[in-house]
Design brief:
It comes from Candidatus Omnitrophus magneticus. InterPro entries: P-loop_NTPase. With 517 residues, the protein is an alpha/beta fold. 45% of the residues lie in helices and 13% in strands. It contains 19 helices and 11 strands. The radius of gyration is 27 Å and the shape is elongated.
Length: 517
């Protein structure tokens, strides 16, 4: 019998329809802030459970009976050409229409059509608070969809009301969006340190970043499916899905949904395997659902470009909480919260290089029906593949490196695009990319064999020796003795002839056999 519940990948979750964890399970800080009548922000990447949390919070507060709470979106006022007056009307209409979802008629604010005073959000909230016997907890979603003077105006009206809460203004206001309030100034006045006249929301007591699922939470979520259907996600499968998703809530649900409904076609008698998880990963990447497309859109932004280029090259950047680019990428969920700074999970780590070199991949055509890089026994001929890349690089690199948006990471992206045929032929590439490592490591699995490649930009005279030491240490961690060190010459003021730049050298280093390409 088909399960009544399923893994949700669209909209907010409801316990009667979806497998879900209590969104407030780790959020005692929110209840503490509400009790102390504080204003705060909640921010997290898209599809990490913000809206689910807000709905659950408002319903729980109203049910407990100590507060009046409403969630509403200000997105209707989120376009640049809107005036402050019209924005106020749209936001107030959104609040009024949403209030009926959470409150009985007596607790709802007055209809804006019947409001006789100057229709500003500040006035409207004052009169609503005065009319109510209980304190109001107001949850404003999509706050960072607002632009320019509208954003400043709304924040200042809320700050003004802070002084007269809780009798004459909401006792608690939470601003909810993709980014922390410190980011709002960059939308309004990017070149200035502040918004002027003091921060419009300098009364916030806390900034809450919603986290990803832990491995234990993924197991708990998946166990709900097992309870309903008897179909088990084994510990090994859960561990692999955690590696693929990094606990990102949408990805955790999407991978499970892909396995259960698309790959196994809701046949709960079938065993879920790690191969199913790998297939789900590939399916999601190829299909590029809305979640992944929204991630890809962010790659065009300069701040994101700087960080992703550094990660691909292994370059060093200063990680501190005042580095706006790093914190922006973290808030968007693109990079990990821990050091070293790396792309947040394996699925993002896989799709980002594919997207960045998509045009190149499309232009690389297979030569004949038989894959020329496969040996007669079906194994991968890595030497042949890399020598072909040298030839390709000599002929095409200048043309393609100029076309890349990510020029600083162009060499590595060229190689990854060329190696993509390995995945298309049934293999797998694991990428080890992180800030400050000084290189990128690729582990290629094909037909039961593993190949290790290290990519390194030749910035200094001793880059080769440094690279040999690094790949030797990496091979030690894998228990292997054979690897490939790929060195890319950077452009210099002197023209280096291709005969000098293209090399193939077998080196013995620290009891390892290294091919330097």
């Amino acid at each position: 019998m088909k399960s009544k519940r399923y893994f949700n990948t669209t909209g907010f979750c409801r316990p009667e329809k979806h497998y879900m964890l209590d969104p407030l399970r780790n959020q005692s800080v929110i209840f503490d802030l509400i009790e102390k009548e504080q204003y705060f922000t909640i921010h997290a990447p898209r599809q990490t459970g913000k809206t689910t949390l807000l709905h659950e919070l408002a319903h729980r507060l109203n049910k407990e009976g100590n507060y009046i709470s409403v969630v509403f979106s200000v997105e209707s006022a989120g376009y640049r050409s809107i005036t402050e007056e019209i924005a106020n009307k749209k936001i107030i209409n959104s609040l009024y229409s949403s209030s009926g979802q959470y409150l009985n008629k007596n607790n709802c604010p007055i209809s804006p059509e019947k409001y006789t005073k100057d229709l500003t959000l500040e006035n409207y909230l004052i009169d609503w608070a005065i009319s109510q016997p209980k304190p109001i907890v107001l949850l404003l979603d999509e706050i960072d969809s607002l632009y320019d003077d509208v954003l400043v105006s709304i924040l200042r009206q809320l700050r003004n009301g802070f002084q007269i809460r809780p009798k004459r203004f909401p006792s608690t206001v939470a601003l909810v969006g993709l980014r922390d309030v410190r980011e709002y100034k960059l939308k309004v006045r990017p070149t200035e340190a502040s918004l002027g006249s003091g921060s419009p929301f300098n009364i916030k007591a806390e900034s809450i970043l919603l986290g990803t699922f832990t491995k234990e939470e993924i197991s708990e979520l998946y166990s709900q499916h097992t309870k309903d259907t008897g179909q088990i996600f084994s510990k090994e499968v859960v561990d692999r899905i955690y590696e693929l998703t990094g606990g990102q809530p949408w990805l955790v649900n999407a991978v499970a949904n892909e396995i259960v409904e698309k790959i196994l076609k809701s046949d709960y008698t079938k065993t879920i395997t790690i191969d199913h998880a790998e297939q789900a990963k590939e399916n999601l990447i190829k299909r590029r659902d809305t979640h992944l497309d929204s991630l890809i859109d962010k790659l065009k932004e300069e701040r994101v470009k700087n960080i992703i280029s550094a990660i691909i090259n292994g370059d060093g950047v200063l990680f501190d909480n005042y580095d706006d680019s790093l914190m922006y990428c973290r808030d968007l969920g693109i990079i990990s919260e821990t050091r070293p700074v790396r792309i947040a999970n394996e699925i993002y780590q896989e799709i980002i290089p594919r997207v960045l070199n998509r045009n190149l991949q499309d232009s690389i055509e297979e030569e004949g029906e038989t894959k020329w890089y496969i040996k007669p026994d079906g194994k991968l001929d890595m030497d042949k593949l890399l020598k072909a890349f040298q030839k390709f690089y000599r002929r095409n690199s200048e043309h393609w490196l100029e076309r890349f948006d990510y020029k600083e990471a162009g060499q590595g992206l060229l190689l990854m695009a060329f190696l993509q045929r390995v995945i298309n032929g049934g293999g797998r590439i694991d990428r080890e990319m992180a800030v400050g490592r000084g290189r990128t490591d690729l582990t290629i699995e094909f037909a039961g064999e593993t190949f290790v490649l290290e990519l390194k930009l030749k910035r200094y005279d001793d880059t080769k020796e440094e690279g040999l030491d690094q790949i030797s240490r990496y091979l030690d961690t894998l228990g292997m003795t054979k690897g490939y060190l790929i060195l890319f010459e950077l452009k210099s003021s002197t023209v280096i002839p291709w005969e000098t730049r293209i090399k193939w050298e077998e080196v013995s280093h620290q009891n390892k056999n290294i091919t330097v390409v």
